[in-house]
Amino acid sequence: MLPHYISNFIKVLLLVGVLSFLAINKMLAQSTSPTIVRGILNDAQTQEPLIGVSVYFPDTQIGTVTDVEGKYVLKANQAFSQVRFSYVGYKTVNRSIAPNQIQELNLTLDNDSQQLTEVVIKGKRRYRNKNNPAVDLIREVIAHKAANQLQQYNFAEYEQYEKLRFSLTNTPTKLKKNFLLREFPYLTADLDTTTLKGRALLPFYIQEVFSNNFYRRNPDKKKKIITAEKKVDFGEYIDSKGMQAYFNHLYQDIDIYQNNITVVTNQFLSPIADAAPTFYRFYITDTVATQNGKLIQLTFEPRNETDFLFAGNLYVTQDGNFAVQKADLGISKTINLNWVRDLRIKLDFTPDEAGKYHLSKSEMRADLGLTPKGNFGMYGSRLVVYRNYAFDKPQPINFYEGLPIIAAELKTQPDENFFNANRPDSLTASESTTYTNIETLRNSPSFKRTTDWATLLIAGYKKAGPKIEIGPVATFYSFNPVEGFRLRFGGRTTPDFSKKINFDTYAAYGFKDEKWKYYLGATYSLTDKTIYDFPVRSVRVSYQQDTKIPGQELQLIQESNVFLSLKRGVNDKYLYNKTFNLEYLQEFENHFSYRLGLKRWQQSPAGSLEFERITTSENQSSLLSSLTTAELSAELRWAPNEKFFQGKIYRTSFIGRYPVFTIRGIAGVKGLFDGEYNYQQITLNVFKRFSLSQLGYTDVVTEGGYLFGQVPYPLLSIHRANQTYSYQFQSYNLMNFLEFASDRYASIMLDHCFNGFIFNKIPLIKKTKFREYVTLKALYGGVRDENNPAYNSQLLKFPVDASGQTTTYSLEDKPYVEGSVGIGNIFKFFRIDLVKRFSYLNHPNTSELGLRGQFKFDF
């Protein structure tokens, strides 16, 4: 045994040796330089920065992802000689690097295919939700949705840039040789030939918007302040504001955390909706290493490829938050969607300092065309970049009052230097020339001639000089049982005549009744804009002497339109009207409006219609030649967040998720302008679309009215009937004109579209992409004794036919009910309904069944 002091000495030597080894090893490690790679990654074709690209050292878990500007920094203390770049939809790239060096590596990644591709999963065994780890994972994502949305914060704000672009597509040769474009060679001088393989893009619309956005959770409120905006303007021929509203209606914000996502006017079920496991198949297909940990790649596809569902990939964090870091969404080519050849949505989320992921980039691209495989069509894209998030910074209480979207009050408007300095990425060559090209095109005489003829075909108006246009041409010829062959000619002034005042007129002649009809109207704008520019504030005065069918009210079409001359059944009860109108209209930016009116109305019976007294005094004829009334009216209308396109005649509203309220009050004043009756009437109408996701949507109209006072039947509420073969939603399609009159009533109309939900499940029929419709309409009302000719001999008799049988009735103790089943999307634009009438079948000249058609353009 060694002496005690020798043993202790050996232990000390061993301890010193171990400590020396560790110290030397640490110094050697510290003396080795780290391997650092930084750079920027861009798309090889668009040169746009790529967000969320995985950058990592192969065969390790050391990695990172690119930020909103495409930048990355990858760092390790070890020596690595290779780095890998991986991104869904792009070719994976490996690059050699110098170990233990600080270096910059900027790359462009090539897309696997320039075509918008769909996700196809093949070779899967029988799919089940039970004991499926992919389904378990997506259920965790669904359970954590509330914690990963912006709505988790009391307050949030961020900056936003959005770019919306639409282009014509075709092969480069066909675009340059197009007979409409040959006169404008500058349009095809700089085509985009990189976005779509084999086709060129000719941009015709571009819009850029910078904004600051604010959110408050309680009460829920949003505010968007536009700080800069730039878009093309086509001038007087095209409603640029309406075009902007329509394109934004097609390409709405994409929020994957919502149950339903609206894309090109249709609702798609989100792959992380509460019901997603019922409609989607999910597969875990990969894991991706990033600086913030591993991501799980979830591939998903629709169980039924014709339903409104996506296919693509989700990248989910493994940090316990189950947040979506990236999403690629596409559609199946067999989906029941019109005009869309292909569609792709990319969403990128970037973590903040607290590790919460927020949307940093959203991009939607759609290839639209009349045929599935043709070259000609339209290509639209919307890019939105979100940056500089800030949370829980409350604004003043009154900050959220007023309109949800406003323009910032700036001393000077942002110029081109502002856009160049603040765009997340510069415009492409074809995009940058779009502004100047359209401005040049707008001032071209050839373009003005072309759009003039196009306006004639679409809207029915044709310029007859710079200040007058004639039309609408569809009303120039028509026929009916009272007037026989009818010719009409009219026109109006244009804003070139005056921005403040507009005149319109027409004259018509019936060759059977040999009577002239005419109309004169003038509208004066009380703003510095025309009467077509929202919001309108105007005064209108008009006088009309013409025929009218009692109870006919048409939507978006004029009564003398030649296409409505053909009618079913007996249709010979008309009125000759002489009407003077004075009206004031005030619209507000929040889409609330009111009208105040004064109307003198003289109506005389025409055709087989008669105003026959029940009792007569001495020397008094039993037939009354005319009725004269003077009315004061007020109408209030509120359509929250309404978007519309202003046409030459009508505004076409884009149906959204908000209801439309209209309330109207009328007071007849006896003695005013020879008015013969005192009465008051109030009417309320509410329209609302209810979206039911995969089950389609339901349009609902409820209406009620009440009339106070004693009046003859022409002044009662004559319910909207339709004896044409065109389907009218807010009319009763198997009710005869002047069949029902009421002084009090309530009605409901339901029109449900299944969007192919049923037909998509039937093997042969699903290829047709037909869509199913079901409609139900019910009207309940009545006439008080004081307004019922059966109980009040001071009134006029209800009309009768040639055999003396009554043809006008009050609604008794049962409602009028009709319903229909229909097939839509025939040739992608036609709908046909089989309509059935369920009540009052004993009335003369009634039809229990009928076919009605309707042209309807829809995606």
From TrEMBL:
Gene3D superfamilies: Carboxypeptidase-like, regulatory domain
Pfam families (UniProt xref): CarbopepD_reg_2 (PF13715), DUF5686 (PF18939)
InterPro entries: CarboxyPept-like_regulatory, DUF5686
GO MF, any single term: carboxypeptidase activity
Name by which UniProt lists this protein: Carboxypeptidase-like regulatory domain-containing protein
Keyword tags: Carboxypeptidase, Hydrolase, Protease
Superkingdom field: Bacteria
SUPFAM superfamilies tied to this protein: Carboxypeptidase regulatory domain-like (SSF49464)
Membrane among keywords: no
Species assigned in the record: Adhaeribacter radiodurans
